[in-house]
Design brief:
With about 425 residues, this protein is α/β, with parallel strands linked by helices. About 40% of the residues lie in helices and about 20% in strands.
Length: about 425
């Protein structure tokens, strides 16, 4: 009988694959009840993932009181970035509407994650993004979620606009000088005195800067306890609510998905309601503040468009664009090669912004210019030696102009000399 001998092979247990799992939770409002719900979701997902065999806890990503758009959610963005970094293999979330209400954005994100091997599981729909029928189901369900969101948004808009028609203050927000108690605005006596002071000083001729400096120096907290700034003072002296009235529907939501506020320039009705709440200042004081604001606006010098000559001026030596720079309070344009690598690489002179503007106006035959006019007439401006600018026009012709280098003596006007003389005399008297 033939003897048969075989080596015994021991079966080794397969190495278990550990899947890195994270969860995403979001609530769409900042109400306490919803934030409690968010806290409960975090606890639930943390326990679920950590107690599941074969899963490695990769965290719970959250967003509070924000819209369902992708760009506005910091937690969501961090989740996606960590997925791309290989830190996450699967994401668990409650439903499609929690993940995103925009169909296009949702599908784009899901496909993006699917391409890098990251699965998204939606508990409510019992659906995996990597499943065979996932694509079709996502399209249908996401579209439904988007329509549901639109319907809810339209209903809310209708309620708000009906409230505006009746002169109701809707969605009251914190307003310095007031406190909100049980849906009503009541005067905060301490802050109200500061509001009165701001109006009085503003009408009396104090600048916004001086008011800001003084309030901060005195340690008076601004809105939300922070420091004062020019914008916050300007908002106070131009806000009709401080005389107990309210201009309703100044802004509106143009898109229910991204919740972007747009200034109402007549697209929707606007209502002015008198006596909506107790005023801090009278109507005469408010009108005087508005006259001062109008006066300051009319006297304000127009700010130059920082982007007007962007990509238009080029260096004739190295071919690089000129960039706007600031030196000693004045604005110039200089070659980017000179800025980045120094005079040894590209020896050029910085050109005063006002000179470029003046010469461009000469070439175009206008007193003022904008970007459209510039692009319509000029293809490029080359900066050459000896303060020469060559304007290459869209009709194929060129115009050569020489810019002037203003010295300090040129700006030393008679008025400035007189002021300097007075200051010198005063200093000598005090010494």
């Amino acid at each position: 009988m033939n003897r048969i001998v075989q080596q015994v092979k021991f079966q080794t247990a397969p190495i278990p694959i550990v899947k890195k799992v994270a969860a995403y939770a979001r609530v769409s409002t900042g109400k306490d009840a919803m934030l409690h719900s968010l806290s409960a979701q975090v606890s639930y997902y943390s326990s679920l993932i950590q107690n599941h065999k074969g899963w490695q806890y990769a965290g719970v990503y959250i967003d509070e009181a924000v819209s369902g758009t992708k760009s506005s959610r910091e937690g969501f963005q961090k989740l996606i970035n960590d997925c791309k970094a290989g830190k996450i293999d699967m994401v668990i979330t409650k439903s499609i509407s929690r993940f995103g209400r925009n169909t296009v954005t949702l599908l784009q994100t899901v496909r993006e994650l699917k391409d890098i091997g990251v699965d998204v599981f939606f508990e409510e729909q019992n659906l995996h993004s990597t499943s065979a029928d996932g694509e079709l189901m996502f399209t249908i369900l996401a579209s439904y979620a988007q329509e549901e969101s639109l319907s809810a948004s339209e209903n809310q808009k209708w309620r708000i606009r009906k409230g505006f028609e009746n002169g109701e203050l809707i969605n009251l927000r914190f307003l310095y000088g007031y406190s909100i108690k049980r849906g009503s605005i009541v005067v905060n006596p301490k802050e109200a005195e500061i509001v009165k002071e701001i109006f009085s000083r503003y009408i009396g001729g104090d600048s916004l800067t001086s008011i800001v400096t003084d309030l901060n120096k005195r340690g008076i907290p601004g809105a939300l306890g922070g420091e004062w700034c020019i914008k916050s003072i300007r908002r106070i002296v131009t806000n009709e609510k401080y005389m107990g009235n309210a201009l309703l529907q100044k802004t509106y939501i143009s898109n229910h998905l991204d919740k972007t506020k747009v200034k109402n320039n007549g697209q929707l009705p606007m209502y002015f309601a008198k006596g909506t709440h107790e005023g801090i200042i009278d109507e005469e004081t408010f009108c005087l503040a508005q006259k001062r604001a109008e006066q300051m606006e009319s006297e304000a010098k127009p700010k130059p468009d920082k982007t007007l000559f962007a990509g238009v001026i080029k260096c004739s030596k190295c071919g690089k664009n000129y960039r706007r720079v600031t030196a000693n309070g004045r604005h110039f344009f200089n070659c980017t090669t000179y800025i980045n690598k120094g005079k040894a690489v590209c020896h050029t002179s910085k050109i005063p912004e006002d000179e470029i503007y003046r010469l461009t106006c000469e070439v175009l035959g206008t007193e003022q210019i904008d970007r459209d006019a510039l692009n319509d007439k000029i293809t490029v401006i080359t900066a050459d030696d000896n303060n020469i600018l060559t304007f290459h026009l869209t009709d194929g012709t060129t115009a050569v102009k020489r810019w002037q280098q203003k010295s300090r003596a040129d700006s030393w006007t008679k008025e400035k000399r007189n002021i300097a003389s007075i200051r010198t005399t005063e200093q000598r008297r005090c010494s």
